[in-house]
Amino acid sequence: MQELVCLNDLYQQYSLGELDKKEFEGCIFKSAMENYERFHLFGWNRDECIEYLCWLYPRLSRAVDRYRETGASFESYISAVIHWSAKEYRFRMADHYTTEYAAWLLHAEEMTVHESEPEYPEKKAVIEKRAAPNHRQLLILILKCYYFVSDDFLDRIIPVLGMEREQLCQMIDKIRGMRVKREEEIFYLREHIHCQFYRCITFEKRLNAVEEGTAHHAKMQARLRRARERLAAMRKRLAGLRLEPTNSQIAEILGISKGTVDSHLHALKCRYPELETDPGAGVCMN
To answer: What pTM was computed for the model?
Structure first.
C-alpha cells in the first residue's frame, strides 16, 4: 500500500486555486488506485478494483462539483461515493454478464450438432379391399391435413366429394387464416418466454450478490420465485398450442358438432390404423 494522501489537504489546495480541477481529479484517482483496499470492496481483486475505478473516473468530476463543506469531510465524502457506487457497478456488470450468458444459453440448442434422422424400414403395401370412407369423412380428413394437400390433389378429389372447388378452397383458406394467427401467437409467446428466461437469470445473479438474511435478499428471492412460476406457466401454455386445426375449428367451419368430427376421425383411425402409427404420415388424428 502506498503512503496515504490526505484528500482533505488536496481539496484545500484545490479551493485555494493551487490545483486546477483536472490535476485535483487526477490526484484523487491516483490515491484511490494506490489505496483501493481501504474502500472495502467486497470480494474484489486488484484488477476488478482498477476496472471499477476506471468506470468511476468520469463520475468523480460530478462528485467534486456536488461537494459542499457542510457536514462530512471531503475524504469521507469521496470514500462514500466510491463505496456506494460499487453497488451500481456490480449490478451493471451482473446484467452485462447475464445478458451474454442468456444469449448463449438460448442459442446453445440451435448450435449443437444434430444426429441424422433414423431411417425407417419401408412398409409393404397392404393390398386389401376396404370400404371407401364417406364424403363427410373425406372432407374432414382433407381439412385436418390441409397443410399437406396440393392443388393437384384438390383437382382430383373434388369430383369424389361432389362439391364446388371454390367452396372447398374457402374452407381451407379459413383454416389457413387460423394457422397464421396461431403462428403469430406462438412467435410472440416464445419472445416473451425468452425475455422471462433472461429475467429469471438476472434475478438469480442479483440474489447471489446480495447478503443472505437481509430484507433485500428476501425481496429478491420472492421476485425470483414469482418469475420462475410465470416462466413455467408460459412454457406450459406454449406446449398446449398446436398449429394443426383442432376438431372444434373443423366443426365450426362445417357447421356440425365437435362430437361428429371426433366420431368420423375415430372411424378413420379404426379403418386405417397406419395413419396413426406411421411416423412419416405427418397426420395427427386427435
So the answer is: 0.49
Give DSSP secondary structure letters for 200-219.
HHHHHHHHHTSPTTSHHHHH
Q: Structural domain boundaries of the chain?
A: 7-89, 135-277
Read off the pLDDT of residues 135-188 as tens digits, 9 standing for 90 and up. 888 888 888 888 888 888 888 888 888 888 888 888 888 888 888 888 889 888
Is the CB of residue 54 less than 8 Å from the CB of residue 28? Answer: no
Return the SS3 of 20. coil
Residue reference for cell 388424428: 285
Q: Express each pLDDT in 71-126 by its tens digit.
A: 678 878 877 787 777 777 776 776 666 666 666 665 555 544 444 555 545 544 44
Cα 164 to its chain centre, rounded Å, is 46
Q: What DSSP assignment string belongs to 133-179?
A: PPHHHHHHHHHHTGGG--HHHHHHHHHHHTS-HHHHHHHHHHHHHHH
* Residue 135: closest CA among 173, 166, 107, 168: 168
**Beta carbons within 8 Å of 283's beta carbon, 6+ residues apart:** 144, 145, 148, 275, 276
